Amino acid sequence: MNKLQHRRVLLGVTGGIAAYKAAEVLRQCQVMGAEVRVVMTPAATEFITPLTFQALSGSPVHTQLLDAEEEAGMGHINLARWADVILVAPASADFIARLASGMANDLLTTLLLASEKSVMLAPAMNRAMFDDLNTQKNIRQLESQGVVILGPAEGVQACGETGMGRMLEPEALALAVAEHFQTGELAGLNVLLNAGPTREAIDPVRYISNHSSGKMGFSLAQACVEAGAHVTLVAGPVHLPTPSGVKRIDVISANEMTEAVMSKSKQADIFIASAAVVDYTPVEIAENKIKKSASEMQLTLVKTTDILTKVATEDDSTFCVGFAAETDNLETYAKDKLERKSLDMIAANWIGRESGGFNSDYNALSVYWESGFQELGSMPKPDLARELVALIAKRYHEKNTI
Ligand code: PMT
Fold first, then answer.
1. Does the pLDDT of residue 159 top 90, yes or no?
2. Ligand 1 centroid to 9 CA: how many Å?
3. C-alpha distances in angstroms, 175 versus 81, 83, 214, 383?
4. Pick from 50-59, 176-185, 228-237: least confident
5. Greater pLDDT, 26 or 181
6. Is residue 399 very low, low, confident or very high in pLDDT (cuts 50, 70, 90)?
7. Is 320 a catalytic residue?
8. Partner of 364 for a Cys bridge, out of 39, 139, 278, 378, CB 3.0 to 4.6 A?
């Protein structure tokens, strides 16, 4: 159920009796894997305390527009940037009216005005207030501006009346937020990925490997699931949880990774090679621990199979995306790999720079294909993965409709 894994949900709570249910909305989003932060209007704090949301979210709750301490910590612009989506639940008639008229007279309306992210509102109010022409006009206007309106539901209301105006149940709201992220760009396609390092044994205690953490590849696997693909992930030795909906095959060595990838590549529409496969492996693995008596020692290494080239040349119909990890001449080396390995696309990243690379939570990519190029700037790997997957989907569909 980790449909909101790595998603940042900003929950806005406005003044209405359904505000008490917002605590459960927060919990449901968390259960689905989201990180949640809360902004309350002053009226909402009359119905439920900020402390409740602080305890549940583990983060300070923001209530004031002009609070020097909060602005120094995470001001409204930063909060707007932090969120992937803003869900206002409950959204009162007054709040909806203020938002529709473009007012910025409290933190939540100001933040929404400053935000370019998706906004979802869960109206909750007395049925007559909901039916009122002004409320209906405001809702239609917000919808025409791209705001997603969730509900309301019909039923018995806190005021004792029955009709439209009940806030949707917390689980339904969390699910609606999750569905919002399902892009469908790769709907029904089989995507095969590899991620992480490989480990090449020298003897029973030593091995050759590299600094890959698997974060980039696991983020890509998650982004492919969100895009509607059936995803198989061949993972080297890393300590990362499997993204929800992903079939994972664990391997250790380059040889095992080659076998696992080749056993699945025939069914793959797309192969994304983000793994840092070790290029040379010892010819022999010593049976016992090598003694360190000699002052020097020599290891004979042999090249590992180039998995990416093998898939690209043996499975002509598979759309192949390679990675290039470079410390210098990024563009030249990346373009050389694109051509030499017969790839459809290559995503190149710098190693040893501030923009990210190995083991970092951030990365930046220069993406090349035969007739084009796109720069994806430094950002958290889950966000970068979504951008790269959108680009892959676009190129894949272009190639397959020609
Ligand atoms: O795992 P993280 O810590 O998140 O770091 C991410 C990353 C830096 C590992 C990732 O973004 C990345 O760059 N992965 C590719 C690393 C690499 O091995 O690059 P390369 O330039 O040496 O290889 C080029 C391509 O050939 C890669 O797609 C690689 O998977 C593939 N290859 C290489 C050798 C080999 N024997 N078989 C291969 O398939």
1. no
2. 32
3. 23, 17, 28, 20
4. 176-185
5. 26
6. very high
7. no
8. 378
Determine the distance separating the centroid of ligand 1 and the alpha carbon of 277, expressed in angstroms: 6
From 29, 159, 224, 320, the catalytic residue: 159
Decide if pLDDT at 397 tops 80. yes
- CA–CA separation, 281 and 258 (whole Å): 13
**Ligand 1 lining (C-beta closer than 6 Å):** 196, 212-217, 254, 273-277, 279, 304, 306-308, 322-325, 337, 349, 357-359
In the structure, what pLDDT confidence band is assigned to residue 355 with cuts at 50, 70 and 90? Answer: confident
**Which domains occur in the chain, in start order?**
8-180 (3.40.50.1950), 190-399 (3.40.50.10300)
Could you tell me which residues come within 8 angstroms of residue 279 by beta carbon, excluding any fewer than 6 positions away?
303, 304
- What is the spatial distance between Cα 323 and Cα 345, in angstroms, rounded to a whole number? 9
Which residue has its alpha carbon closest to ligand 1 atom 36? 306
Global pTM value: 0.82
Region of 239 on the Ramachandran plot (φ > 0 left; ψ -120 to 50 alpha; else beta):
beta
Alpha carbons 382 and 380: distance in angstroms, whole number: 6
CA distances from residue 396 to 1, 196, 216, 400 in whole angstroms, order as listed: 28, 24, 20, 6
* CB-CB neighbours of 104 under 10 Å: 16
Q: What is the dihedral of CA 325, 331, 333, 336, to 10 degrees?
A: 130
CA within 13 Å, CB half, 1: 8
pLDDT of 170 above 90: yes
